[in-house]
Write a structure and sequence with these properties.
2 copies of one chain form a homodimer. With 346 residues, the first copy, chain A, is α/β, with parallel strands linked by helices. The longest helix of chain A is centred in the middle third of the chain and has 20 residues, at 145-164. The first copy, chain A, has helices spanning 3-10, 16-28, 37-50, 82-92, 97-104, 145-164, 179-191, 195-198, 207-224, 231-238, 241-256, 265-277, 294-303, 319-337, and strands at residues 60-67, 107-115, 126-127, 169-175, 260-262, 285-287. Chain A has a 6-stranded parallel beta sheet with strand order 3-2-1-4-5-6, sandwiched between helices. The first copy, chain A, is built from 14 helices and 6 strands. The mean pLDDT of chain A is 96. In chain A, 51% of the residues lie in helices and 9% in strands.
Chain lengths: 346, 346
């Protein structure tokens, strides 16, 4: 059996018995029942994920999938392609948004080159390039089915390695100019929701640029005819290496029973792909912040998740995950350190 | 001049020149302009508060104002009065929600007894009791005008001391059974908004309890006739010692140019009182989380502030401030540690 199929097969539902025990503990803590809201639901979810009532965040990592997108030939982005490589480099040198926020929150940043159209000379880069950028989805498929599976499986492998090294809280990040276009195309192919509802301005398109982006996405889906019942086909035909790698990351975390944080829109599209492959994978995911991309709201609805943070952030990279890590760790401390009514003799 | 009037007189607008310089730095960082959203607006605000582009969080404290409320005779709370003292004790022994979250976030918790109807034997308690609980506002004023001013000034003194000790990020918390009733009464007196819009279930009232709470608030305001143009009069007649102390805390922070975080509904009502006394004090405040109390939305609108966190929390104590501290510190790190386009030769 392939690594992808093995991983999917290993994903099982949450441990409801542990969640019930966690709820008992939560209700014994010194507070009105339910009054710590999302901290309580996270603590319950973590119990379901690990099977333990008390959880400790031992290692945090944000896995950043990097790849270029051929569709930027169609002027769908306000930035040139070279910026993908530049941003990935600044992640490695500690200068980018996710590098700074990740360091502040005590998380490792693992940057994976799955498909950058350029080479980075830095030993910290995880070099797993499948191809130098995808094809232009307005003219043909992004990649072959085999390449899509390789990219997903690479995401699984890298995530499994991070977990083997002691990571027990994972964040998902990406870099790839043009990836709000490919993500919107994947979401459109999977849902057939109105393009007006799901396409946004990415890093900062004009009105004209936005209209062009919608037209290109429509064209890409009409031309490539991805099968909405087959997420691998959708990713291969209109997605990107970053979306594929993150999909693998979500599946790997679920198969290893490790909580995994959704960042913004692109990460959310990958989460949706994972859930379409295996619905139970959803239970291992935690939504960090509300994205400014309009498609984000559709994703939250489809995944039935509410963001915890509303930061008006639209940088991507995994920056929202870094902030969410602190909240998730706070939930574990609530569970382990708060007193109970019994402690004070009530 | 009284301490209260001195403090109010010292509050001046933000340093707009520093904010412009901060904006230049923000726009030079390696990201699309504005793409770090609220982190950027916080960094800009901190520059306006301190006059410095780069800020460092050196000391964090959550100042918790504790007091009992005579109105609980009217069955407006699902908890008995003794719980105020019990909760304050668990804050000092490290078992309460804010104690645990504050410790996790590296913040000191300073618990001030302004009006508990009971004595706590713990040297960590800041003992500044003005009276053993307020009067029942359904039958008369909560306190005299002199007592209200003393409570506000005590809040100012304690906050000034914390700042003298090195605190440069302040959170506001409270404990006092019945304080969503007094807070709703203050908000109703100040705004005359519909009681249906501003009164909620506090820690967990029934439908019947909620109807009674509204009736009591209406009665208290009709009986005591607080002057909506005079926040001290409103606090004295239908407020509480906790609201008074927190109002002092907000004013002191603004006068000392230190950022101060609003927690939930009760803290928001105190913030509104401070802003009504001196509109410029608003510029020193940062809203942490969205409260579940319906009056919270009215406060956010009146203060023109949007919460960053939506945690469905309704514990109070200052718990939302603890989580917000991490985000505020993240904003300072973004400002100091991210690279610029110039750094990478662009």
């Amino acid at each position: 059996m392939s690594l992808l199929n093995q991983t999917i097969a290993r994903i099982t539902p949450l441990d409801t018995k542990a969640m019930e025990e966690a709820q008992k503990r939560l209700d014994s803590l010194l507070k009105p029942q339910g009054s710590l809201g999302r901290l309580e639901s996270i603590a319950r979810q973590l119990a379901g994920i690990t099977g333990k009532i008390q959880n400790k965040v031992e290692g945090k990592a944000i896995i950043v999938m990097a790849g270029d997108n051929g569709v930027i030939e169609e002027s769908v982005s306000s930035y040139p392609k070279d910026v993908s490589k530049l941003v990935a480099e600044t992640m490695l040198t500690g200068l980018s948004g996710v590098a700074v926020l990740g360091k502040f929150e005590g998380a490792k940043i693992k940057v994976v080159d799955l498909g950058l159209d350029g080479d980075i000379d830095n030993p910290a880069l995880i070099k797993r390039k499948i191809k130098r950028g995808t094809g232009n989805i307005a003219k043909g498929p992004a990649m072959t089915r085999d390449e899509a599976i390789r990219a997903i499986e690479t995401g699984i492998e890298i995530t499994n390695l991070a977990i083997d090294e002691g990571t027990n809280l994972v964040g998902t990040g990406e870099v790839g100019i043009g990836n709000t276009t490919t993500s919107s195309a994947v979401l459109y192919a999977l849902t057939k929701e109105s393009l007006d509802l799901l396409v946004g301005r990415g890093a900062g398109l004009s009105d004209e640029g936005l209209a062009n982006k919608k037209a290109i996405i429509k064209k890409a889906v009409e031309l490539n005819k991805p099968d909405p019942e087959d997420p691998v086909d959708v990713i291969a035909k209109v997605g990107g290496f970053d979306i594929a790698g993150m999909t693998g990351c979500f599946l790997a975390c679920a198969s290893r029973r490790v909580p995994v944080v959704i960042d913004g829109f692109i990460s959310g599209v990958a989460a949706l792909c994972a859930v379409r492959m295996k619905p139970e994978s959803r239970e291992y995911m935690i939504q960090s912040h509300g994205t400014e991309e309009p498609g984000g709201k559709i994703i939250h609805k489809l995944l039935d998740m509410e963001p915890m943070l509303f930061m008006k952030m639209r940088l991507g990279e995994g920056t929202g995950c870094a902030l969410a890590f602190n909240i998730i760790e706070a939930a574990t401390r609530m569970m382990s350190d708060m007193g109970t009514f019994a402690d004070i003799g009530m």
